C-alpha cells in the first residue's frame, strides 16, 4: 500500500463530508468550532449536521481578513463548514486569538479549501503559524481539493494564536478552525514537541468515518482495509472506560487479521523526510470468542524489529500500545507489523491505529504576563492596531509596532522592554494594566489626551528608565517616588500637572474667590485682596515657596538647576528706579488701558518685558493691581502671559510681564500685522492654546477663577506665535482698554459679555466660555463682533442666520481662500455656536472645548496643508521662565 499519495490523506479526512447523519446537540466539552468567513449577519452559528456541534462565525476571534464562499458549482462537493472562507489580502500575518487552558492538551484542526472563491483559478500557497512558530505550509496547488492540518498540542499560555501568514504572493485563506480539549493531559505524550496527525484509521471494510459524538474528543477516524486481510467483527459492546485514550467504541466492532494466519499484518508507507519522528498509537480489543484452547498473541514490529513482545489483546476491552520515544524510518521506508507468536493459535488483530509525526514549536512565546498586560492596555484604550495580532515579540519580523522586546534565545520567553503609545489618541487615565509590565524599561505615552493623575505604581516599576508622559492632560501632583535617580521622566505639556507639593500646598491656603458674586460683595473682596497683598508683601517667602505647574522637559532638570533659579527669584520685586531704568524712563509706550500705560522694557539688558504702570490717579486701578499681582504670582501656564515681577513702592505700582512681540490676535486677523501666517491651521492652534490657558484658569487653579474678559485683543502672541491669554484679574469691575463700557458695574467687553449677566449680574466660568465662543466666531469669520450694518448685528446671531442658509463659504473669512477642511470648520463652527449659546447650561466647559479643538487640529494637521513653520503642537512646545520659580524646599 502507498500512504504517501496526496489524495490518500485527503480522502481520509475530507471524504467523510459526503455522509450526512443527524445527531442531536451534545454536551460540547469546551469545543471551539469556527466556520471561518461565516458572516455575523446571517445566523452567526448553526448546528453542523454530521456532528451536531454548533459552528459559529469566526468574526470575533480575528481582526483582519475578508469573507467569501467557494464557487457555487462546488458547493455540493463540500459540506459546511467548508463552503465559506476568510481570506487575507492585506496584512502579512493574520491571527486568530483563542482562549484556552494553559497546560491542557488540545486537538487543533484547521481546514483550507480554495474553491476558486475569487474566480481566478489560482490555488494559493501560504504558511500556517501557531503562535510564533511555523506549523505548516499550506500548499493548495498540491492539494487542489483542500487540506486539513491537525495537531495535538498543549498551549503554554491561556491564549492560542493561529496565524495565516503570506509568504510569497498568494493570498492566505482558511475555511474552518476547531479546538477540542482532550480528557487526559498526560495522554499522547512526547519526549518533546507536539503531534502532527498523519493518519487515524479504524479497520473496517465498509467505507465510513467516525468522529463526534462517537469519538468524545471529535478525533476523525477513517475506515481502512487492505486485500490480504480478513475482517472479523462482533455484536458485543466493547468497553473503553478504562482507557486514557477513549477510542470510539464503534471502531472496535470490526478488526483486521491477516488472511494467512502465519503471515504478518503489515502497514507501510514512505516518509517525506528521513528525519521525521513518529509516534504510533495502536488500539486493540479481542472481539472474537476464543475457545478454551485458543490463544491470540503477537509481536509488534517497527522497521522489522520487535518493539512489543507477546501482546495479548484484552477481551472486549480497549487497550492502546504506543511508543514512549519517537521512532524514525530507515531510508524513508516505514513499516509497522504484527506477527503472531509461535504459541499463538490465532493470527494477530488490529482494530484501530493512529500515526503522528513530531512537530517542534521551539520558539518560546512572549512572557505571558507581558502579553496579558499589553492586551489589557490595548483594551483599556480601545486601540485598534491592525498589526497587534499574534505573538507581540516573535517572530521578530512581525513584532508589534510600538514594542521592543528582549530576545535572548528561542527557549527564553521574550519580554517586552519598551512600549511606545505616543500619538495614539489615548484618552482616560494611565491604565493600571501597565503596572504588571515588570521588565518595561521605556514607556512612551506622549502626545495623547490622558487625564487624571500620574499613578504611584509607575514608581514601583523598578526597571523603568524613561517615562514620557508629555503632551497630555494629566493633573494633580507628581508622585514623589517617581523622582528617583536613573529615571528620566518627561512630563512637559501637561498644563495642569504640578510638581509634588505644589497643588496641596496651594489648596490649603485660603485664596480669594475671584468670581464676583454680586456688585455689593466687590468691596469686601477688594478689601480681602488688599489685605492678602499686604500680608504677602511682608512675607515674600510664602509666595516664593510656591511651585509653578510643571512644564519643564524633565523633572531632573528642574532639580539640577534649582540653585540657579533661586538667584532669579530674588529679583521678582523691583524698585521704582529699576523700573524707570528698564523702561528707559517709560520711553516706548506700546499700549494704553484704563489702568494706565504699558511700556516696553529690557531686563538685565536682554530680556524684553512689558511694564504695565498703574496710573496713580486711578484708585480703582490700585485694587486691581493688587488683585492681579496676587493671582499672577500663583498662576502659571504656558498659555497665560507670565508675570516676571512687580514694583510696589509707595504710590508707584507696576507689573512687569513677559513681552509679547507679536501683538494680539485682533491685529493679526485685521491684517494690521500682515496676514501671512494666520491660515486655518494656525487659527486652530491659537484657539486651542487660548482654550488651554482658559481651561487652566477654570480647572487647574485652586481656587478656580474666571477671566471675565476673553476677547481677541486679550490673546497675545509671543515670538514663536504661541498664544497666551493676557489681562486676567484686571476686569473685576473695571472695563479695560479703549472699549466703551456699558455701565460702571459691568465687567468685560460688549459683544463678548455673557447675555445671562444682564439677569444674574454674575460672571462664572460659563461666561468665559461664551466669550471664547465669540472669539472662535471671530476667528472663523473675521467679522466685527458687533456690526449694525449687518442683517443681524451681533456676530453669533449673524452666523446662526447664515448657517440656517447652509452655506459656510459666506461665513468664512475670505482671507482663508477656502484653504481648509470644511469638516473641521463645521466642527469648530458648531463648537463656537454651542459656546455662544445664550443659556449657560447648554455651553460646554473649557476642557470639552479644548479637547474638541485638539481633535480638529490633529485632523487639520493630518491634511498636511499647514504652513510648516508653524506646525507645532501646542502641548509639546511649552516653555516658561524657570528663573523666576524656584523649587520648594
Ligand atoms: C480532487 O477531486 C476530484 C473530484 O473528486 C478528483 O477527480 C481529483 O483526483 C482530486 N484531486 C486530488 C489531487 O486529490
Ligand atoms: C488538564 O490541565 C488543565 C490545566 O492544567 C486542567 O484544568 C485540567 O483539569 C486537566 N485535565 C485533566 C483531565 O487532568
Ligand atoms: C518563505 O518563503 C521563502 C522564499 O520563498 C522561503 O525561503 C522560506 O522558507 C519560507 N518560509 C516559510 C516559513 O515557509
Ligand atoms: C491520564 O493518563 C495517565 C496515563 O496515560 C494516567 O496515569 C493518569 O491517571 C490519567 N489521568 C487522569 C486524570 O485520567
Ligand atoms: C463496520 O463494518 C460493519 C460491517 O462489516 C458495519 O455494519 C459497520 O457499520 C461498520 N462500522 C462503521 C463505523 O462504519
Ligand atoms: C503464509 O505465510 C507464510 C509466512 O509468510 C508463508 O510461508 C506461506 O507460504 C503463506 N501461505 C500461503 C498459502 O500464502
Ligand atoms: C480447539 O478446540 C476446538 C474444539 O473445541 C477444535 O475444533 C480445534 O481444533 C482446537 N484447536 C487446537 C489448535 O487445538
Ligand atoms: C501628536 O499626535 C497626532 C495624532 O494623534 C499627530 O498627528 C501629531 O503629529 C503628534 N505630534 C507629535 C509632536 O508627535
Ligand atoms: C497584575 O497581575 C496580577 C497577577 O499576575 C493580577 O492579579 C492583577 O490583576 C494584574 N493587575 C492588572 C492591573 O492587570
TrEMBL record:
Cleaved signal peptide residues: 1-25
Location of the protein in the cell: Membrane
Pfam family, one: Malectin_like
Keyword Nucleotide-binding in record: yes
Transmembrane segments: 511-535
Record domain Protein kinase: where: 584-857
Keywords linked to the UniProt accession: ATP-binding, Kinase, Leucine-rich repeat, Membrane, Nucleotide-binding, Repeat, Signal, Transferase, Transmembrane, Transmembrane helix
Domain of life according to the entry: Eukaryota
Topology class, membrane: Single-pass membrane protein
Binding residues annotated for ATP, in chain numbering: 612
InterPro entries on file: Kinase-like_dom_sf, Leu-rich_rpt, LRR_dom_sf, Malectin-like_Carb-bd_dom, Prot_kinase_dom, Protein_kinase_ATP_BS, Ser/Thr_kinase_AS
Chief localization: membrane
PROSITE patterns: PROTEIN_KINASE_ATP, PROTEIN_KINASE_DOM, PROTEIN_KINASE_ST
Name assigned to this protein: Probable LRR receptor-like serine/threonine-protein kinase PAM74
Amino acid at each position: 500500500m502507498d500512504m504517501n499519495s496526496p489524495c490518500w490523506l485527503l480522502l481520509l479526512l475530507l471524504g467523510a463530508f459526503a455522509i450526512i447523519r443527524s445527531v442531536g446537540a451534545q454536551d460540547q466539552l469546551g469545543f471551539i468550532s469556527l466556520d471561518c468567513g461565516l458572516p455575523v449577519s446571517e445566523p452567526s452559528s448553526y448546528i453542523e449536521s454530521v456532528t451536531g456541534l454548533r459552528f459559529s462565525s469566526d468574526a470575533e476571534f480575528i481582526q483582519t481578513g475578508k469573507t467569501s464562499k467557494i464557487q457555487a458549482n462546488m458547493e455540493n462537493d463540500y459540506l459546511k463548514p467548508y463552503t465559506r472562507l476568510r481570506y487575507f489580502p492585506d496584512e502579512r500575518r493574520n491571527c486568530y486569538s483563542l482562549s484556552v487552558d494553559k497546560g491542557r492538551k488540545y486537538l487543533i484542526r484547521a481546514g483550507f479549501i480554495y474553491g476558486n472563491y475569487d474566480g481566478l483559478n489560482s490555488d494559493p500557497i501560504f504558511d500556517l503559524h501557531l503562535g510564533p512558530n511555523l506549523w505548516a505550509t499550506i500548499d493548495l496547488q498540491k492539494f487542489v481539493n483542500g487540506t486539513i492540518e491537525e495537531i495535538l498540542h498543549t498551549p503554554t499560555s491561556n491564549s492560542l494564536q493561529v496565524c495565516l501568514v503570506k509568504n510569497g504572493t498568494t493570498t492566505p485563506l482558511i475555511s474552518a478552525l476547531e479546538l477540542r480539549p482532550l480528557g487526559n493531559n498526560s495522554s499522547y505524550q512526547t519526549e518533546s514537541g507536539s503531534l502532527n496527525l498523519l493518519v487515524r484509521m479504524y479497520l473496517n471494510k465498509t467505507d465510513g468515518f467516525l468522529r463526534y459524538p462517537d469519538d468524545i474528543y471529535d478525533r476523525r477516524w477513517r475506515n481502512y482495509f487492505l486485500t490480504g486481510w480478513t475482517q472479523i467483527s462482533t455484536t458485543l459492546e466493547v468497553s473503553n472506560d478504562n482507557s486514557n485514550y477513549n477510542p470510539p467504541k464503534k471502531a472496535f466492532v470490526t478488526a483486521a487479521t491477516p488472511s494467512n494466519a502465519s503471515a504478518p499484518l503489515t502497514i507501510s508507507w514512505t516518509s517525506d523526510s528521513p528525519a521525521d519522528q513518529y509516534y504510533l498509537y495502536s488500539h486493540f480489543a479481542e472481539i472474537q470468542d476464543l475457545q478454551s484452547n485458543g490463544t491470540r498473541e503477537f509481536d509488534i514490529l517497527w522497521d522489522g524489529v520487535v518493539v512489543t513482545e507477546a501482546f495479548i489483546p484484552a477481551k472486549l476491552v480497549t487497550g492502546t500500545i504506543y511508543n514512549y520515544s519517537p521512532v524514525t524510518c530507515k531510508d524513508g521506508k516505514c513499516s509497522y507489523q504484527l506477527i503472531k507468536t509461535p504459541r499463538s493459535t490465532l493470527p494477530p488483530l488490529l482494530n484501530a491505529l493512529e500515526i503522528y509525526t513530531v512537530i517542534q514549536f521551539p520558539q518560546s512565546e512572549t512572557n505571558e504576563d507581558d502579553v496579558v498586560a499589553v492586551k489589557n492596555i490595548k483594551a483599556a484604550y480601545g486601540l485598534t492596531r491592525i498589526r497587534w495580532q499574534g505573538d507581540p515579540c516573535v517572530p521578530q519580523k512581525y513584532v508589534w509596532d510600538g514594542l521592543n522586546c528582549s530576545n535572548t534565545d528561542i527557549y527564553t520567553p521574550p519580554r517586552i522592554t519598551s512600549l511606545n503609545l505616543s500619538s495614539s489618541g489615548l484618552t482616560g487615565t494611565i491604565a493600571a494594566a501597565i503596572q504588571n509590565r515588570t521588565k518595561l524599561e521605556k514607556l512612551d505615552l506622549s502626545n495623547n489626551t490622558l487625564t487624571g493623575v500620574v499613578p504611584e505604581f509607575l514608581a514601583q516599576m523598578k526597571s523603568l528608565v524613561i517615562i514620557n508622559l508629555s503632551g497630555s492632560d494629566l493633573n494633580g501632583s507628581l508622585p514623589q517616588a517617581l523622582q528617583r535617580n536613573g529615571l528620566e521622566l518627561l512630563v512637559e505639556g501637561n498644563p495642569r500637572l504640578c510638581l509634588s507639593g505644589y497643588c496641596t500646598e496651594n489648596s490649603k491656603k485660603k485664596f480669594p474667590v475671584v468670581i464676583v458674586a454680586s456688585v455689593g460683595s466687590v468691596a469686601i473682596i477688594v478689601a480681602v485682596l488688599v489685605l492678602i497683598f499686604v500680608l504677602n508683601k511682608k512675607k515674600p517667602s510664602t509666595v516664593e515657596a510656591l511651585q509653578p505647574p510643571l512644564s519643564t522637559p524633565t523633572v531632573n532638570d528642574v532639580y539640577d538647576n534649582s540653585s540657579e533659579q533661586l538667584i532669579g527669584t530674588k529679583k521678582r520685586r523691583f524698585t521704582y528706579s529699576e523700573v524707570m531704568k528698564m523702561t528707559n524712563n517709560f520711553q516706548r509706550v506700546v499700549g494704553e488701558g484704563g489702568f494706565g500705560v504699558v511700556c516696553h522694557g529690557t531686563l538685565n539688558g536682554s530680556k524684553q518685558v512689558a511694564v504695565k504702570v498703574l496710573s496713580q490717579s486711578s484708585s480703582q486701578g490700585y485694587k486691581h493691581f493688587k488683585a492681579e499681582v496676587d493671582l499672577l504670582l500663583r498662576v502659571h501656564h504656558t498659555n497665560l502671559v507670565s508675570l516676571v515681577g512687580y514694583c510696589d513702592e509707595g504710590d508707584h505700582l507696576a507689573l512687569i510681564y513677559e513681552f509679547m512681540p507679536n501683538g494680539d490676535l485682533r491685529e493679526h486677523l485685521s491684517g494690521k500685522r500682515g496676514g501671512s501666517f494666520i491660515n486655518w491651521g494656525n487659527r486652530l492652534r491659537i484657539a486651542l492654546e487660548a482654550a488651554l490657558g482658559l481651561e487652566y484658569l477654570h480647572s487647574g487653579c485652586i481656587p478656580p477663577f474666571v477671566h471675565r474678559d476673553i476677547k481677541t485683543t486679550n490673546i497675545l502672541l509671543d515670538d514663536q506665535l504661541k498664544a497666551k491669554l493676557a489681562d486676567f484679574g484686571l476686569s473685576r469691575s473695571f472695563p479695560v482698554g479703549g472699549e466703551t463700557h456699558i455701565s460702571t458695574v459691568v465687567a468685560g467687553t460688549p459683544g463678548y459679555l455673557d447675555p445671562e449677566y444682564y439677569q444674574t449680574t454674575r460672571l462664572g466660568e460659563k461666561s468665559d466660555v461664551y466669550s471664547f465662543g465669540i472669539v472662535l466666531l471671530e476667528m472663523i469669520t473675521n467679522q466685527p463682533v458687533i456690526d449694525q450694518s449687518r442683517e443681524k448685528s451681533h456676530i453669533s446671531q449673524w452666523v446662526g442666520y447664515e448657517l440656517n442658509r447652509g452655506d459656510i463659504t459666506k461665513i468664512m473669512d475670505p482671507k482663508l481662500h477656502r484653504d481648509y477642511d470644511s469638516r473641521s470648520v463645521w466642527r469648530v463652527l458648531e463648537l463656537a455656536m454651542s459656546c455662544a449659546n445664550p443659556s449657560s447650561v447648554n455651553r460646554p466647559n473649557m476642557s470639552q472645548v479644548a479637547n474638541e479643538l485638539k481633535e480638529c487640529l490633529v485632523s487639520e494637521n493630518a491634511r498636511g496643508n499647514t504652513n510648516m513653520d508653524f506646525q507645532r503642537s501646542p502641548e509639546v512646545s511649552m516653555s516658561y521662565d524657570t528663573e523666576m520659580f524656584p523649587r520648594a524646599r
